[in-house]
Amino acid sequence: MAFSLRALSLHAGNFQDRYSGTRSGWWAWFLQRLTGVALVGYLFLHIAVISTARAGADTFDTVLIILQKPFFVVLDLFLIAAVLYHALNGVRVLLFDAGIAIRQQALLFWICMLLTVVITGVAGYFSLPLIFRE
Amino acid sequence: MKPRDMSAPLTSRQENTVTGFWPWFLQRVSGFLLIFLVGVHIWMTHFSGLSDVVRGHQEELVLFEIVKQRLAQGLFIFIDFSLLALVLYHGLNGMRNILLEWGPAARHAAGMTAGLWLLGVGTFIYGAWALLAFIL
């Protein structure tokens, strides 16, 4: 635990954003790490699932039919939200590296959050038939 | 046992391993490319066949035969293997970044980097072997 607490305290400190006076910069950083670690965990599970193809097409299909049941479609939406946030905030970081829009960092964070929610919502809307099918 | 002095500054070699240019640069390049690769991957697997499933023309979005047909195209073979390599690099380098914020890990950066490379290359070989079940 010392690891995470120390890492968090390094960044949490009393670091209010210079320009916005909020802590959105800390949240952006924290959520990037949280989604990153979650996605790495998912990646290894994903590769393990795909490797069931080595046991034959029937085994793969049996596993994949279970993983496309409504419960997992809902989990997939959380996955999509994590990927979206991580990608959008990644672009935000790339802009800062290029010296662009650093003063607008708090605004950009909220744009990332908004786009994540909206695009996940659209994906969820189109997935409704898969969630409520019999 | 005497506790390790965590306040001692890192040696220049440790400092260089921790804050090198290439991991930083490649994290950005791989991240940028992954936006497109992951986008295509999620679209193809979860949304392109959605209307067929909803209309009952297709049983599920992802089944062995569907993946096999997709991977009969050179473009998707290229996309999937690039995706596997880049996502492993980006993910494990990201883990390395997180670990290096922890003092004791920064002191063993070289060994930790080697360990993560081993894990990444091993997982790439395993993932490629899994993908080849659809191709060969």
C-alpha geometry of chain B: elongated
Mean pLDDT of chain B: 89
> Average pLDDT across residues of chain A?
89
- Terminus-to-terminus distance of chain A: 44 Å
Number of helices of chain B: 7
| Estimated share of beta-strand residues of chain B | under 5%
Cα shape of chain A: elongated
The interface involving the most residues is between: A-B, 36 and 38 residues
Question: Biggest sheet of chain B: strands, sense, closure?
Answer: none
Oligomer, anyone?
Answer: heterodimer
Calculate Rg of chain B over CA atoms.
20 Å
Structural class of chain A: mainly alpha
How many beta strands in the DSSP annotation of chain B? 0
> Regions of chain B with pLDDT < 50 over 5+ consecutive residues?
none
How is this structure best described in words?
The complex is a heterodimer of chains A (134) and B (136). Chain A has 134 residues and is mostly helical. Chain A is elongated, with a radius of gyration of 19 Å. Chain A contains 5 helices and no strands. With 136 residues, chain B is mostly helical. In chain B, 76% of the residues lie in helices and 0% in strands. Chain B has 7 helices and no strands. In chain B, helix 2 crosses helix 5 and helix 5 packs antiparallel against helix 7. The longest helix of chain B has 27 residues. Chain B is elongated. Chain B starts with 11 loop residues before the first helix and ends with a helix. The mean pLDDT of chain B is 89. Classes of the chains: A mainly alpha (134), B mainly alpha (136). Chains A and B meet through helix 1, helix 2, helix 3, helix 4 and helix 5 of A and helix 2, helix 3, helix 4, helix 5 and helix 7 of B.
Short description:
Chain A is mainly α and 134 residues long.
Per-chain topology:
The complex is a heterodimer of chains A (134) and B (136).
Chain A: H1 2-12, H2 24-50, H3 57-66, H4 70-97, H5 105-131
Chain B: H1 12-18, H2 21-47, H3 50-54, H4 64-70, H5 74-99, H6 103-106, H7 109-135
Helix pairs in contact in B: 2-5, 5-7
